[in-house]
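Entry 14. Structure prediction run on the chain below.
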Amino acid sequence: MEWTTEVGCAYTATFSIGAIGGSMTCTIQLKDFAGNNLAVKNAITIYFSTDADGLGTATVTSCVLATHGIIYTIETLKAYQLITEANGVAALTIDNSSAANLYVNVVLPNGKIVTSSVMAFNA
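Output returned:
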């Protein structure tokens, strides 16, 4: 049962992935049930995976917020709790010291997991 169908609550997320490299940016925009960008800060959990299904967990070299907001480490270099900016955006800088295809997975408050497109790191 999904309980965040009203406008103003995080229902899904979109991703903007930066250029391929050893350090990449990933901007997450939270959206409500109607598809509107959120206009409030939210708490989300993110983790990294080796597949688009979000099942093979992955480790990165570092993950930091590139903008305002707060990042809390849940599991070092694997999973984080984020507090977005007031516009529902979290912009991350992710470093990986080895070549790998990784994905960012967002766990929304309703339990839904949204996965980014592939992030192709090169060493």
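The chain has a mean pLDDT of 91.
Filed with the rest of this week's runs.
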